[in-house]
Amino acid sequence: MSKVKNKILTALVLVSIIVPLSSTDYGHFQKIKKRNQMEFKLFSSAFAEGAMIPAQYTCDGVNESPPLNWSGAPKETKTFALIVDDPDAPRGDWVHWTLFNIPASTTSLKENASLSGNFTEGIVQGLNDFRSNYYGGPCPPSGTHRYFFKLYALDISLSLNNSANKKLLLEAMKGHILAEAHLIGKYKHAR
User: For a pLDDT cut of 70, what percent of the chain falls above it?
Assistant: First the structure.
């Protein structure tokens, strides 16, 4: 009986040592992952996080894409992909811009990058919900809507062309997203 008790006691001691170690390792890796995502930031000189998007970047203005900058991407990044959408649209999520195969060396998009066409070779503008391959600025039918600029750091270059929409882009990125950065702007029609 004492041998059984000793074996049980030994097993409990081992479990009490191994479990905290494995949870510490897991916690350590989670902290690294979280830190990498916290360092990856997307911002704009045109508007602050959660602020109103200036009219020039909307259908009430010249409808040009706003300047965007980012920093802190993981060193394993091969390309970036950008999706701009409006989750507050009456028919659900409305996609305003998709852009992918942005080289890892890129850290910004200039104002009006979408229409100027001054992209590095290989960058592709996918299809948005306006059935266009360009940026379509905020144009809410009523109320104030939120516009999510989502930048993804990827470990691959995507084999898609300009007919790819958000759904195809998300499918192609699955399993290849190293980090994600967000910028949210708001807009209400000037009426």
Answer: 79
- Please give the order of strands across the beta sheet that includes 41-43: 41-43, 68-71, 108-109
Distance CA 134, CA 99 (A): 9
60 and 34 in one domain? no
Gyration radius (Cα) of the chain, Å: 23
Residue 46: how many other CB atoms lie within 10 Å: 16
> Do 34 and 47 share a domain, yes or no?
no
Range of the domain at 19: 1-39
CATH assignment of the domain containing 87: 3.90.280.10
Looking at the fold, whether 11 and 57 belong to one and the same domain comes out as no
* Cα distances (angstroms) measured from residue 189 to each of 56, 114, 138, 173: 12, 22, 9, 33
Q: Convert the pLDDT of each residue in 21-59 to its tens digit.
A: 444 444 433 444 454 445 999 999 999 999 999 999 999
Q: How many CA atoms lie within 13 A of 100 on its CB side?
A: 26
Helix (H) / strand (E) containing 11: helix 2-39
Please tell me the predicted confidence (pLDDT) of residue 17.
46
Q: How far apart are CA 100 and CA 85, in angstroms?
A: 15
Q: Which residues pair with 173 in a beta bridge?
A: none
